[in-house]
Structures are given as structure tokens and as C-alpha cells.
Write a structure and sequence with these properties.
By secondary structure, the chain is mainly beta. The protein has one helix at residues 6-28; strands spanning 45-52, 61-68, 72-74, 77-86, 100-110, 115-122, 134-144, 148-161, 164-170, 178-183. Helix content is 12%, strand content 46%. It starts with 5 loop residues before the first helix and ends with a strand.
Length: 186
């Protein structure tokens, strides 16, 4: 008769811990970092998300999303954006540096249309058990061809940690997180 391998148990515990961590990150708002751009540092907006995947929490969960963008760009120019997402939930296990990644769509409105995806989010520092999470380094670039005010509103997001992915969609209406004035440039 074969006895269960202790290594199998460790793998299951790590997968379960990873799912619990992803749920905590997705459910509370994981930070996607933002170094200041030409505009003032943006204030975060609260966006409710419903997440699906292993260990995803039930019901809408708030995320604090900060989008830093230039105050203006000339028509036909590109706007470089940086993002940060912060969670109010705490992680159930220690998380090594750079082990969480994510991406988030931004929906253009006002004079702009379409969407772009911010990528490059990670946790540059280790996160101790019981701490909240901030992911930094998220960036996106948008070419803006129409003069006027263009808004950027958080859209769908995904969080990846320990081989587990949780996908999150906006619940209700998300507020615009940044506005850029697109000028005629003359």
C-alpha cells in the first residue's frame, strides 16, 4: 500500500496558499505603481471589482486605482501613463518580492475612444504576512489624435501569483482616474 507523498501535500498547500493570496490581492485592490509624470500626482479612485478564479472572493471588492498622466499632450502625441492599485485586504502568507504581477485595461472616454492595457505591475519588495499589497511599475502609452479632454477609466484586470490567475471585471460604473487635455499643438 502506498502512502501519500509529503511533497504532494506541500504542492497542494502551496497551491491553496497561492489561491488564498490571489483572492486577497484581487479582493482588496492590488497596487500598480506610478512614478509622477508631468501632471500632479493623481488621487486614487475606488473601483468595485468582481473576480473569478481559484480562491476569488465573493461579491464586489474595492480596489484603489491611481493613474498618473501628463496634464496635456499635443494632438497626435502619445501620453505615457503609470498606474498603482492598492488593496485593503491583507495577505495570508509572506509574498516574495516580484512574485505578483498584473495588468489592467484603461478605457478612453471624452475626446478619446478605445482602450489600452497597462502592464508591468509587480511587488518590488517582499510582503510580510498580514500586510496590504501595492503593485508598482504598471505603464501604458496612448496615442491621442483628437483635440479635447480624454479620460482614462479603469477596466478589467488580472492578477497572477504562484501560478494562479484571478480575472476581475468592473462591477457597476468606474470613475475616470485621469484626464488629459489634448491640444491642437499650434
Amino acid at each position: 500500500m502506498n502512502s501519500p507523498s509529503p511533497l504532494r501535500g506541500r504542492g497542494r498547500r502551496r497551491t491553496a496558499a497561492g489561491a488564498a493570496l490571489v483572492a486577497a490581492l484581487a479582493g482588496a485592490g492590488v497596487g500598480l505603481g506610478a512614478p509622477p509624470a508631468a501632471a500632479d500626482t493623481a488621487d486614487p479612485v475606488s473601483v468595485a471589482y468582481v473576480c473569478t478564479g481559484p480562491g476569488a472572493p465573493d461579491g464586489p471588492q474595492p480596489l484603489q486605482v491611481t493613474v498618473t498622466a501628463p496634464a496635456s499632450v499635443p494632438r497626435g502625441g502619445s501620453a505615457e501613463l503609470s498606474l498603482e492599485v492598492t488593496t485593503s485586504l491583507t495577505v495570508p502568507i509572506p509574498v516574495p518580492a516580484n512574485s505578483v504581477t498584473g495588468e489592467m485595461a484603461l478605457v478612453l472616454g471624452g475626446a478619446g475612444s478605445g482602450s489600452i492595457t497597462a502592464t508591468g505591475f509587480t511587488n518590488p519588495q517582499a510582503i510580510p504576512t498580514g500586510s496590504t499589497v501595492t503593485l508598482t511599475g504598471g505603464t501604458a502609452s496612448a496615442r491621442l489624435d483628437t483635440a479635447g479632454s480624454t479620460t482614462f477609466t479603469p477596466g478589467d484586470a488580472a492578477v497572477h501569483v504562484f501560478g494562479v490567475t484571478v480575472n476581475c471585471t468592473v462591477s457597476g460604473t468606474a470613475p475616470a482616474a485621469a484626464t488629459i487635455e489634448v491640444t491642437d499643438g499650434r
